Amino acid sequence: MDDIARDRIEAAAFRRLLAHLRARTDVQNVDLMGEGGFCRNCLSDWIGEAAAAQGTPLTQHSAREWVYGMPYADYKARHQTAATPEQLAKMEASVARNRVLEASLEDSFPASDPPSASEPG
Hints:
SMc04008-like fold; 0% strand; 121 residues; mainly alpha
C-alpha cells in the first residue's frame, strides 16, 4: 500500500471516529480518559500539533470545534456533566499510565512515525 492510499484510509477512519464521538455525547471525556487514556480534548490537541507540524497554525478553540462539531463551550453546556470522585480517580490512574507509556515510546520511535506506519506493508 502506498502512502497516499494509507493517508486516505486513515483520514476516512478518523472522520468516522469524529462522527462517532460527536454522536456519543453520553460518553463523558472523563470516562474516555479513564478507560482509553485519551478524550476529545486530547484529540483536538493532537490535531493542533499535527497542524503545527505541517506549518498550519490552528488555535485550540478551532481544533476543539473541529472535534466537537460545535464550539467547546456549547458542547460543555449541552452534554458535559460533573465528574464523580470515582471517575476522576480512574482518569488520574490512566494519565499516570500514559506518562509511563509516552516515556517508553519516546525511546523507541518518534511519535510522528509509529512502527505501523514505517514498516513495509
